[in-house]
Amino acid sequence: MTPTADAKINTSMPLFITADELIYSNDTSEINGKGNVVARSDDITIFSDSIYVNSNSGDAIAQGHVLAVQAGSSIYTDKLNYNFKTLDSYAEHVDVISSPWIVRGDKLKKQGVKTEIEKPVFTTCDKESPHFRMQASALNIYEGDKIESWNTVIFLGNIPVFYFPYFAQPLKGEKKPFDIQFGHNDYSGWYVNTLYNVAFNQYNNWGLGYNYMEKIGAAYVLNIAYGLNKDSLGTFNGSLTDDFKSTPRLRQWAFNFNHDQIINDHTRLNLRAASLSDSNMAATLQDTQGVDVFRHDFGASFSTAIGNNQSIGISIADTEQLTTNSRYYTAARSLPSFNYSLTSMPILPRLYYTHALTLNRSYNAQDGGGYYSDAANFTPSLSYSIPSFYILSLSANAGLTSSWQNTNENQKKFFAGDMVNSMNTSENASIDILPYGFLKANLTYAYSKMLNKLEGMPHAGITGNNASLSVNGGGGFISFNSSVTYDLLTATVKPGFDTDRLSMINFNANTTGGDIYFSANGLYSPYANMIKNLSFSFSLMDTGAPSMWSLSMMTNYVNNIMDTTGHQAITRTPDTMTFNSTLNFNFTPEFTFSINRQYDLILKQLTSESYAATWHLHCWEASISYIKLPGQVPQYFFTVFISAIPEAKFNKPTTAAPDYKLDDLMNQ
Q: Is residue 357 part of a domain?
């Protein structure tokens, strides 16, 4: 019978030990075990040849063929020091397996939430001679926060290919410690793009990038995310491109800054700035091959809530644009914009009142100068709903829009301008034609009318007068919907012929049955009595585990006799009718293949096709594809990367387009 010891003398350290031989001392609260030792606690399980445990201090020493299993990781060593109370540990010459990573280090020390490994070598390849490995002088793991290492070298086989003095990868979020891409395209030639991320904590991290392009030059990238706490966060993204191939030498730079400050639960502040510029502006502006847009954007906004249903917001913004005669002018300006809103204030049962007020002073640039425009809008409204009565429910809205605008090009009469008032109403009826949602109809009527400034307006100032009907339903494996709008303001093309008041009728239906899916979509013009477009799609897949194949097909028809309103098009282009098919094969978990083809049913020819294959080769993945598009030469694409580090890859893009755009930062 295997001796056991249940260390419950100190309830803060629940521990259960089994071994071929156990000796327990009541005087010293010490346990000594030999042969097939298993020590279990809530945090760790230790297997070893022998073990010593002090129940008072929690200290333990396991020796001989030690295996420690903790939080999904396995630690192999000859000797392990562990404390069952503090959860601290120490070991030398360790192997750690934490899927998919395999790590070997000279020393392992865990204290609190920090685990240190000296001289680690880590990989995801389980070959005796790994296809790749990463080697560092030290590796730290901060539980729930990040992993960081120093003097890291990436080896392919025995060949060192990259060196990082320091990198860190947060355990929360999607930031990678580095991103490396090799490739070639017609625009850049051979290129290498690198991005090196340093994570200080979950709020603060830096990204440093260097890109080299054979035909263009070098680009330097700086990305910063910072935060004092979760309520004070910001970002800075900048780049500098040194185009040493151009004459004269051209340097282009761009940056984007954004900061969000949460003052309290109801108050927010945002600051933003962006710029795009060039060291040789005049030459570039006259060069049709160069960049001709240089601008600076600045802005700030503030918002706060008053009570439960009111809010105030203020914003300012300014944009400067470079002209062709190399001077800056104000392209747009908001000084400032103000808005106030009140939402959902009950007046009577089921009757609610809302309103919104906006004020805006903006600058409009034009050749030779500019002018300011002042505008204000006030929009009070009422909404009312009637409780459902059997199969019928009703709701209504009524509102007033008062708009004031002053376009004062001479900037002399600030209070001059026009006030325009309009009324807007809408009513909605929802009818359950069949129970349980099998068939439901919604009828909406909307009306808008100007109340002043009617001179020269058609329809006595009525700007909107239409009714819309939608029908939807379904059950089980089928669903459908259709909608149409009837415009009461549209003049009939033929006397007594009202079908041209109807919009296009939209309809959609789909069915799902296990491994089969079918859908149909279309647009029909009542006026022309023709279908504008029609499409059918069908898909079928293997329901096995894992799925071995899938098939999808779609036919799409477009009638170009009509425009999008259902009337005769001004310029006639040929109708189109295409058939698309996609077939995916998963031959094995390591190899997949897909085919995509498009056939023109009118021209009776194949218009595009693509073929792609992906291999998983032990710890590597590789893919290759062939694409042929209309009017373009065939293109080939391939990429090779380490499965565990997909950000380090070698690829050949499918197009000649560059892999970077200087103005991307302006749009972030």
A: no
Q: Is the peptide bond before 248 cis (omega within 30 degrees of 0)?
A: yes
CA angle 172, 177, 178 (to 5 degrees): 140
Task: Please name which of 658, 656, 657, 662 lies closest in space to residue 219, comparing C-alpha atoms.
Answer: 662
Residue 645 forms beta bridges with which residues? 642
Who's near 351: CB < 8 A, 6+ residues apart? 382, 383, 384
Among all chains, which residue has been given the structure tokens 């685990």? 115
pLDDT tens profile 453-482:
888 888 888 999 999 999 999 887 899 999
**pLDDT bucket at 588, cuts 50 / 70 / 90:** confident
Q: What is the DSSP secondary structure assignment for residue 324, as one 8-state letter?
A: T
CATH of the domain at 64: 2.60.450.10
Return the bridge partners of 18, or none.
4, 38
Q: How many domains does the chain have?
A: 2
Q: Residue 286 class from Cβ within 10 Å (0-12 exposed, 13-18 middle, 19+ buried)?
A: exposed
Q: Domain end: 143, 172, 194, which one?
A: 143
Listed residues 123, 143, 163: the one ending a domain: 143
pTM strictly above 0.70: no
Place of tokens 């060069």: 287
| Domain that residue 594 falls in | 489-602
Between CA 383 and CA 344 the distance in angstroms is: 9
